[in-house]
Amino acid sequence: MSALLEVEKLAIAYGGHAVVKGVSFQIERGAAYGLIGESGCGKSSILRGLAGLHGYSGSARLDGQPLGELRGKTLARRVQMVFQDPYASLHPRKTVEQVLGEPLLIHRIGDVQRRVLAILDEVGLGAAFRFRYPHELSGGQRQRVAIARALILQPELLLLDEPTSALDVSVQAEVLNLLKRLLRERNLGYLLVSHDLAVVAHLCGHLGLMHQGRIIEALSAAQVRAGIAEQPYTREFFAASR
Ligand SMILES: Nc1ncnc2c1ncn2[C@@H]1O[C@H](COP(=O)(O)OP(=O)(O)OP(=O)(O)O)[C@@H](O)[C@H]1O
């Protein structure tokens, strides 16, 4: 059986300037893979490429099928993205119910109310949250709504772009634990991008440390916890993360 996501020699350039230079990794079902590295190393570009937001060369296959063949609605059914700032990603004048119901309406999926209530429950928000607006929610609650919106179409893969870095430290752990539970319960795959080693090691079994558009070292979470690295750059990154 093929991996959920298989990325090979992915490369991305902006106006001829290469920012991702041949990145390869794979994600199994039920597993989270992390891409870590300092700002500007190309992490978000990889997510945006996989989400169909700009072009890339190389190959990316979802369950064996080239991602480029899945466009628009089909891609949205199978791959969803969660952004760093839940406030910016939620429409200020839409209630939680409208935000969560919208993808169902677009995809002509019925039973909207039942599905909205079920997903709110799944992300740890009660039924009363349906009627709230984003400004009536805390940062953590907003990110839970963004996660619920990403999950309501029952995708197989979530692309998570710094999903906790806009949150207070205490709330970060709650949202990470929620993501961990959902990963297990739904047998999803995650591609998590972060500059925070602790966040990635908490959620991901395997990760790639990026530098200037390349994965310079592939690591397991156990290696990260033990501080074991071959590359001098990785050891520096570890030291700076302590
Ligand atoms: N739309 C764009 N046009 C031109 N250059 C871009 C564009 N988006 C990103 N870049 C450049 O590509 C490089 C990689 O950016 P990217 O956002 O992928 O890095 P990152 O590792 O995710 O960093 P950050 O954590 O700051 O988002 C950076 O040098 C950035 O300035």
Automatic annotation (TrEMBL):
<dbReference type="InterPro" id="IPR017871">
    <property type="entry name" value="ABC_transporter-like_CS"/>
</dbReference>
<keyword id="KW-0547">Nucleotide-binding</keyword>
<dbReference type="InterPro" id="IPR003593">
    <property type="entry name" value="AAA+_ATPase"/>
</dbReference>
<keyword id="KW-0813">Transport</keyword>
<dbReference type="InterPro" id="IPR050319">
    <property type="entry name" value="ABC_transp_ATP-bind"/>
</dbReference>
<dbReference type="InterPro" id="IPR003439">
    <property type="entry name" value="ABC_transporter-like_ATP-bd"/>
</dbReference>
<dbReference type="GO" id="GO:0005524">
    <property type="term" value="F:ATP binding"/>
</dbReference>
<feature type="domain" description="ABC transporter">
    <location>
        <begin position="5"/>
        <end position="237"/>
    </location>
</feature>
<dbReference type="InterPro" id="IPR027417">
    <property type="entry name" value="P-loop_NTPase"/>
</dbReference>
<dbReference type="GO" id="GO:0055085">
    <property type="term" value="P:transmembrane transport"/>
</dbReference>
<comment type="similarity">
    <text>Belongs to the ABC transporter superfamily.</text>
</comment>
<protein>
    <submittedName>
        <fullName>ABC transporter ATP-binding protein</fullName>
    </submittedName>
</protein>
<dbReference type="Pfam" id="PF00005">
    <property type="entry name" value="ABC_tran"/>
</dbReference>
<keyword id="KW-0067">ATP-binding</keyword>
<dbReference type="GO" id="GO:0016887">
    <property type="term" value="F:ATP hydrolysis activity"/>
</dbReference>
